[in-house]
Write a structure and sequence with these properties.
The protein contains six helices and six strands. It is of the alpha/beta class. It has a single domain, classed as Nucleotidyltransferase, domain 5. The protein is globular. The protein starts with a strand and ends with a helix. GO terms for molecular function: nucleic acid binding.
Length: 183
């Protein structure tokens, strides 16, 4: 069964799920040859007992377009996460969660999946693009940030802090890294 790389980006109102909410998330499903076979996005209602982190709230004030985008057409987490699991199950292969950084994005998505859908199609694992870049560039982890990556890895795609835009952009980046790794 082929692997389907599901590049995922989340937008949140703080650093951890539970006390803070995932505001939106977007996923772009790619095959290894950079064929974008589907996308998913949802904007979520905030958690009832959560509150925004002051530092994150201040950052959102600098991103009015992204804020407006993630606060429209809100869904309850149970509806959104159930739809997400159903979408993943329609994809023609084994889903692999991919993010930059996976530690942050996967923490939110996994928490919401278990809490609201009762399952994770990704099991317990996620592929971290920054760690992959470290290995490809044979660099220290600190030197594996996007600013140190070869320009050839990047397509001309926007990074807008709108979850689906960023998931598509980072998915293309991942596929370019994967191609380099397989040379």
């Amino acid at each position: 069964m082929q692997e389907i790389y599901i590049s995922t980006d989340v937008e949140t109102d703080g650093p951890i799920p539970g006390p803070n909410s995932m505001l939106s998330f977007g996923s772009a499903a790619y095959t290894a040859d950079k064929n974008l076979i589907g996308t998913f996005t949802a904007n979520l209602e905030t958690l009832p007992d959560a509150s925004a982190d002051p530092g994150t709230a201040a950052w959102w004030l600098t991103q009015p377009d992204a804020w407006a985008a993630c606060r429209s057409n809100l869904e309850s987490p149970i509806v959104a996460m159930t739809r997400y699991v159903a979408w993943i199950k329609t994809l023609p292969g084994k889903p692999i969660f991919v993010a930059f950084p996976a530690g942050f994005d996967f923490m939110f998505v996994y928490w919401y999946l278990i809490r609201y859908a009762g399952e994770s199609p990704f099991s317990f694992s996620a592929l971290d693009m920054k760690s992959f870049a470290m290995a490809l560039m044979k660099s220290d982890f600190k030197k594996s940030a996007k600013k140190y990556m070869p320009k050839a890895w990047f397509d001309d795609l926007p990074h807008t802090h709108i979850a689906l835009d960023d998931a598509i952009e980072q998915g293309a980046l991942f596929c370019n890294m994967l191609k380099e790794n397989r040379k």
